[in-house]
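Good morning C.,

I know you're traveling, so I'll keep this short. The sequence:
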Amino acid sequence: MTATRKGVADDTLRKRRKIVLPMLKAIGEEGISLLEAVKRAKRPYMTVMDWIDADPVLSVNYARARDLRADVLHHQMVRAATEPRPAVVVTEGERDGKPFSESKRGDAVDARRLEVDTLKWVLGRMAPKRFGEVTKIEQTVSGPEGRPMQVEARVNVSVDDSLARLRAKFQP
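The tokens, ready to paste straight into the viewer:
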């Protein structure tokens, strides 16, 4: 048994990786959360998070799994937006004093819209650089009477002091 630099034995790291890497694979392939993967494996969430934080190999794999999960969720969002979802709409009420019920086959547009909006929101927070909304701020600053502003900076540097420091640094 060999100790690593953080004091965790190599065989312990191997055992932890054997447990955690399949969870990370499920995150990347199925788009599930780490919490869901941990529940499936019947492991304590915080223990698994501690293992991931303590092991650089698991940390890198977890980051990659989160990127892949974002791709899977993005694919699900596009599919939800483009594939029709059959639904039956039932309307019940009263007509001419008599109860009636009517059903129509159609598309579950509202359900698809809710799914797409939810996935957009989740992706925007999960990977804001890739899927977040772009906010562009422009600012124009002008001087008096709309003319460009002049900026002046003065820096006081003693050449003698600078040369002395450079000489001292490079002389043996």
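Safe travels,
E.
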